[in-house]
Structure formats: structure tokens, C-alpha cells
């Protein structure tokens, strides 16, 4: 057994994962790790959460898959729950984040087409954003490292500089603009938080000019920032939103949420998916969403995030030779480093048995489960500090 027959698209860490429980992962050699990657903010309730395990087992005995040509009660129930707790009126279920983004992009273009304005095709994304790996998604983010070599750019996709209000204003005023797409808090790009007042201004401009706002909350949504949706902090709402990662608590599920108005072009035959919204996924999704959207879970995120932020700022002060800054929102935390972030991840893993994720701008991301305990958070800080000490030694050598 080796990686020989796997397409070589990943730089894999030399860690064979065997099993997990809560915030812990065990390697095949028995080493215990504290997991602050969580499948990149996907296992939001930790590994092997008993409620999710139960939901999979119960549903596995009953029914896994039927075609979407039939009514699927689990879909209706999860869509009801999502709409009750969001701006949305309708939901399309997918198997992944990138498919949720595809649905969002298609919904936006179809909206203008249904309105008799098929010329409105221009979709504006931002540098440092990440929307997934399908063609629409890589073009929407327009990050050259994901688009290079994959043929000509798709027509109607444009990238703006994050934070450049003038350029964004021009985009809103362009009569062929369809939508803007952004992550309220960037994940892969480096935990950059769009200011609340910018989001409110975007809503106002979008309304004035008939442009749709698409939020990609695949990573920052589902309680990660301490509110169910990241945009709630700004007191505004998008027209369309892509969700995934934590929605299935580790089981592959995505969803595209929209208002009735924004989804008006999505009529029978306009879109579809074989596996999207299958009964097995919906059973886990309902269980995960119920747990994550509980006020107690969100309160815990805010408590643990407050503690970690304060402690990590302390670590940053003690290690100015290792840490540049601490940023992010809630439990989507980024620590910008002086040593190479990939190298640091290896040190944290091997020397402190702490798993952290990489990120753009030479960051490591700390993405604990939303139900992390204060004791586990203390341990995470201790282990992070240990990794910093090791890094200091390496830098001095
Ligand atoms: C992970 C991610 C995606 C892509 O999700 P996949 O399930 O890998 O397709 C899209 N957008 C954001 C913000 C993400 O973090």
C-alpha cells in the first residue's frame, strides 16, 4: 500500500489516521493528537459524535438512496430547518461545497435571464477567496494557482482586489453585472474578515443596482464564527448562499440556499443531482444541524473563541520571533507566522501532537470542533506554545 496509485494532487502529511473521538485523533501507531483541523472545519461536532453515529446507523438500516424524482421527506425536513433559521426560502442539496457554489452561480445567472436580462452575466469575486475546485468555482475565485493550465478563463468572471471599494462600486454600476460572490470571512485565503459596514454597504448597492449577493459560507457558516451564519454579525442577508463542510458534521453534504425571488429561474429541469439530498445524507444533516444551531453550541463557540483569542495573543507577545499576528473570527482563527507555515504544521504535529491547518498568507488555521471544552482549549494553547518554542529553536539554529 502506498500513494503510488493516487492522483498526485495532494501534499500529504506523513500521518496515517486510524480513528477519532471528539477533539482527538489517533494515528495508526497509537499516537494521540489534539485535532484543530477537524477536516478543515467539517467535523464541527468532533469525531464520532454519538448523535451523528446513531443517525447514520439508523438510516443505513432503512434506506440510503432514491432518485430525486421521488419525494424525500428528510430533504423537506432539513430544508424547513435551514429556511427557518436563515434568510432563505428554498434550498437545493448537493454533496459538496463546490457543487453548492455551482448551484449558486447558476441560480444567479438564471435569475437575470428569467427577468429578461440574459446579458447580465458578470460575476465578481475577490482575491484570496476560495470557492472549490469545479470550473465555475475556480473561475469565480480566479486564484491563478487553481486556474493555471485549465484552459481559457470562463467568460463573465472577474476578480476584484479584496477591500477595493471603488472597484466594487464600479462593478455594482456595470449594467451587465449579475452578482458578487464572497466569503464574509475568508477561509483558505487567510482568515480575512470583511468589515460589517462593508457588507451592509454591499447590500445597499446591490439593491440599488439589481445585483445579487452570493455568500460562500461553506467554511465560515454553520456556527463557526459564533453565530449560525457569519453574515448575521453584520445584520444583513445575501440573496443566495452556499453551505457545506459542517452541514453534515463530516458526512458529505452541501446546500445552496436562496430567496424565492433569487431562485425564480430555477424551474423544473434547470438543475439536478443524482446523489444530492439522498436520505442517508439528510438524516445526518438533520442531526448535525439540530446540534449545531442550538444556542448552547453557539454560546460555547463564543466562549472558547474568546479564550483562545486572548491566550493566542499572549503567545504572540511571548513569541514575536515566530508569530506576526492572530486574526480571524470565532473558531475560524488564523495565526500568521514568520517560519514557513507548512514546516510549522509538521513541528506542531510531531513535537506537540497538535494538528493545525495551513492557510494563505503563511497562516496556520486553528479550527477546533464547535463543542470543544475549556480544558481542551487550554491544552490546545499549551501545545501551540510548545510548537512555538520548537520553532524558536529551529529559527535560532
Ligand atoms: C472547502 C470550501 C469550498 C469547497 O468545498 P468542497 O466540499 O471541497 O467542494 C468552497 N468554499 C469554501 C469557502 C470552502 O472553504
UniProtKB/TrEMBL annotation:
Keywords from the named record: Aminotransferase, Pyridoxal phosphate, Transferase
GO biological process, one term: L-arginine biosynthetic process
Molecular-function annotations in GO: identical protein binding; N2-acetyl-L-ornithine:2-oxoglutarate 5-aminotransferase activity; pyridoxal phosphate binding; succinyldiaminopimelate transaminase activity
Top EC class of this enzyme: transferase
Enzyme Commission designation: 2.6.1.11, 2.6.1.17
Names of required cofactors: pyridoxal 5'-phosphate
Record has Transferase as a keyword: yes
Top-rank taxon: Bacteria
Family the UniProt entry places it in: Belongs to the class-III pyridoxal-phosphate-dependent aminotransferase family.
Name of this chain's protein: Acetylornithine/N-succinyldiaminopimelate aminotransferase
Taxonomic source organism: Brevundimonas basaltis
